[in-house]
């Protein structure tokens, strides 16, 4: 991913504080949201909606000013409870709907009886003076999409000018069984809209004496559409549910700051960073956001 001079300057500022250890790139998820489904462009012409970095449509002054707003309002989005630690807590700067108002995605993946993700979304206010928490349409207590990967599938509708992002949620049901739900996520009317595209259940069947890592372990996978009806694998992998003549399929890239790896965090407490340190971390994350439809 190439960075232009303006954002490279911002990244240079962030790197002076030795933040490289805070970014963590993870492997891509499986399912509908897998980047294997991205279509290769047959033309060298740049697709509408492509954004190499934020400086393509925002000035460096705008970006820096909004990063300050994110840092000044950190008490809103540093949401870990007392004693929760920093494991599984990440955040990334983006502009999901490309309205020149920076967004912040905050995610925490907790492990107990199963994997459980909790997310929060924030956006700089229209007047550029405050940070607003975006409402979502999921019921409280529902396991949410698993953010944290460096790369996801996205789409751009040239007619509605809407960007949509495809993220899945993997939930451990029991030992040897897990479920995965695929979401289409977008910002509409200052709200996070999350639409279920499909889901699957995986049950591992083991021969006597075998373990889940053995070759004798077999998987039974059942696929469902958005309404819970059982479908076959080909239908599950298809993008027909959201593809149209006006929609292009591409990739979005994030740079997640992993709080557990911040060297300035004293005894795991990263909430006491200085304003400059917060801005530098946020700048590093902003430098990694891009969207490609090439």
How would you summarize the topology of this molecule?
Blueprint: H1 5-15, H2 60-72, H3 74-77, E1 89-94, E2 103-111, E3 115-124, E4 131-133, E5 135-136, E6 151-157, E7 162-174, E8 177-188, E9 191-205, E10 218-225, E11 230-231, H4 233-237, E12 247-253, E13 257-258, H5 275-287, E14 290-292
Helix pairs in contact: 1-5, 2-5
Main attributes of the structure:
294 residues, alpha+beta, 9-stranded mixed β-sheet, disordered N terminus
3D structure, described in words:
α1 (5-15) crosses α5 and α2 (60-72) crosses α5 (275-287). With 294 residues, this protein is α+β, with helices and mostly antiparallel strands. A hairpin with a 2-residue loop joins β8 and β9 (191-205). The protein contains five helices and 14 strands. The strands form two sheets. Strands 5, 6, 7, 8, 9, 10, 11, 12 and 14 form a nine-stranded mixed β-sheet that branches. A five-stranded antiparallel β-sheet has the order 4-3-2-1-13. It is globular and about 50 Å long. It has helices at residues 5-15, 60-72, 74-77, 233-237, 275-287, and strands spanning 89-94, 103-111, 115-124, 131-133, 135-136, 151-157, 162-174, 177-188, 191-205, 218-225, 230-231, 247-253, 257-258, 290-292.
Query: Helix tally?
Result: 5
Order of helices and strands: HHHEEEEEEEEEEEHEEHE
Estimate the strand proportion: 25-35%
Helix content: 10-25%
How would you concisely characterize the structure shown here?
The chain is an alpha+beta fold and 294 residues long. 16% of the residues lie in helices and 34% in strands. Helix 1 (5-15) packs across helix 5 (275-287).
